[in-house]
Amino acid sequence: MPVSEFRHFINGEWVSSERTFENRNPADNSLIGRVHEADKATVDAAVKAARAALQGPWSQLTVAQRTALLHKVADGIERRNDEFVAAEVADTGKPHHLAVHLDIPRGAANFKVFADLIKNVPAESFVMDTPDGGKAVNYAVRTPRGVIGVVCPWNLPLLLMTWKVGPALACGNTVIVKPSEETPATATLLAEVMNEAGIPPGVYNVVHGFGGDSAGEFLTSHPGVDGITFTGETGTGEVIMKAAANGIRPVSLELGGKNAGIVFADADLEKAVKGLGRAVFENSGQVCLGTERIYVQRPLFDRFVAAFKVHAQGIKVGDPNESGTTMGPVISLGHREKVLSYYRQAQKDGATVVHGGGVPDVPVHLAEGAWVEPTIWTGLPETSSVVQEEIFGPCCHIAPFDTEEEAVVLANNTPYGLASSVWTSDLQTAHRMGAALEVGICWINSWFLRDLRTAFGGSKQSGIGREGGVHSLEFYTELRNVCVRL
Ligand code: NAD
Q: Which CATH homologous superfamily contains domain 4-255+462-485?
């Protein structure tokens, strides 16, 4: 492991705390290192450093200089790719190939895309008639929002953190990142890259710790933080929104989901199975945009279930670092217990277990890890908590539907509204579903495919606000109108 002591990074320097906690590898429960837990004074120091950088060196740079530095950060991630991959795999247990092909390259891309975007944003301008027959011109100026608190989850640690830090820095803000207590490594490694790239001290700060009564709460309730961007559970989002109410500070919330996959009888079965196979099982089902409910039109139902079972049987659960492994453990023993409680509940609620349902056999060196089987159920009532609540594990329930209207009602029957994945060969059906499903993103014949310039976010209880492309500017900048009488 490249880092075995995870300290805070404040004003370009490493800062220690007396209190530490363990960081363990979920594949075998081995100790990766010790994480320093920030107290209020440490968080306060980080906020002060971020404020000083905001008003000082960071604000002195031209947009061209700032964006050139962000490109250097992306280059730094790419140069140290192997270290980032190893750190992410050890922290999360995700298969090596996933970190190589998804997490780390997207981490670098998040800096490049927003650095390039910020250089090409037009500003609106209106010429108006004044009451006395003259003219005035109004034009918009965007200023950085200020010091941004960035609170992150554990499922895609570097990818989701840089998805916020990239645009925040591109817009001229400074940040304090609070990574998940489960995955402190890549945020810490990124601090080294920031220094190597020449990012001024105080622009990127990291404080480690837990949520309530720890670094997360201290950061989100700090009056010196001008805006909070959060990805995580809906319940945590509610707590953070309340904290942000003090001082009327804006929030951007990317929250939970209980996303539906919908397969029409005219869909390409093979592609639907492959696509939804990823949506259900990739990253051990720990993707906010993943699918835990699949609805299949009745004429295709039996064939789909049979083919999906074959797909699940082909998943190779095992050592994340072994080539050929397609599924690692879930994030922790605690999360495994939560996932297994739903596995038990499914049986209590009368599910037919099509595949899995328990704990897999793993080699002896992985015996202490957080393993669960990829699991498929049918036959549950829609009222079952297994069908209603976000499990965040490698599992799904498959149910039949008859009409398009019924599929829409079933898919929308959830307090969440994050994503959906529709499979059909009929363009008319595709467009109608795109309009009818209450989600932030509706995939047609695809999943997890997105241009970073598009708006991303959830509706209903899946979030507030949109980030991505120019939409990120809404949160990361203040829009000011300047009116000049001519
Ligand atoms: P979580 O809400 O438990 O924790 C997320 C972060 O919030 C962690 O850093 C945690 O320490 C911090 N936190 C917890 N309580 C806090 C408090 N009271 N004040 C301040 N900070 C606090 O979420 P998780 O378990 O890490 O991640 C999984 C969840 O994230 C799932 O619900 C998933 O759907 C969601 N998620 C959503 C998206 C999206 O884009 N919508 C993306 C990824 C994950």
A: Aldehyde Dehydrogenase; Chain A, domain 1 (3.40.605.10)
Report the residue among 236, 391, 472 best suited for mutation to probe ligand 1: largest number of ligand atoms under 8 A from its CB.
236
CATH assignment of 259-450?
Answer: 3.40.309.10
pLDDT in tens, 111-149: 999 999 998 888 899 999 999 999 999 999 999 999 999
- The secondary element (H helix, E strand) that includes residue 31 is strand 31-36
Say if ligand 1 is within 6 A of residue 356 CB.
no
User: Known catalytic residues?
Assistant: 254, 288
Extract the tokens encoding 4.
């075995």
pLDDT of residue 120: 87
Confidence of residue 4 (pLDDT cuts 50, 70, 90): confident
Q: Is the CB of 151 under 6 A from ligand 1?
A: yes
Percent of the chain scored above 70 by pLDDT? 99
Cβ–ligand 1 contact at 417 (below 6 Å): no
Residues 6+ away with beta carbon under 8 Å from 124:
139, 140
Q: Which of 217, 234, 288, 420 to mutate to test the pocket of ligand 1 (most atoms within 8 A of CB)?
A: 288
3-state secondary structure 351-366: CEEEECCCCCCCCHHH
Q: Give mean pLDDT, residues 36-45.
A: 98
- In which band, very low, low, confident or very high, does the pLDDT at 356 lie, cut at 50, 70 and 90? very high
SS3 309: helix
Identify the residue with better confidence: 28 or 122.
28
Length of the chain: 486
- Ligand 1 centroid from CA 419, angstroms: 17
Pocket test for ligand 1, best of 6, 23, 92, 151 (most atoms within 8 A of CB): 151
**Closest by CA position to 419, among listed 397, 433, 440:** 440
Q: Is 153:180 a contact under the CB 8 Å cutoff?
A: yes
Listed by start position, the domains of the chain span: 4-255+462-485, 259-450
3-state secondary structure of 305: helix
**Tens digit of each residue's pLDDT (9 = 90 or more) over 58-93:** 999 999 999 999 999 999 999 999 999 999 999 999
96 lines ligand 1 (CB under 6 A): no
Verdict on whether the full-model pTM lies above 0.90: yes
How far, in Å, CA of 451 to CA of 470, rounded? Answer: 12
CA of 211 to the centre of ligand 1 (A): 9
Q: Distance, CA 233 to ligand 1 centroid (Å)? A: 4
253 Cα to the center of ligand 1, angstroms: 10
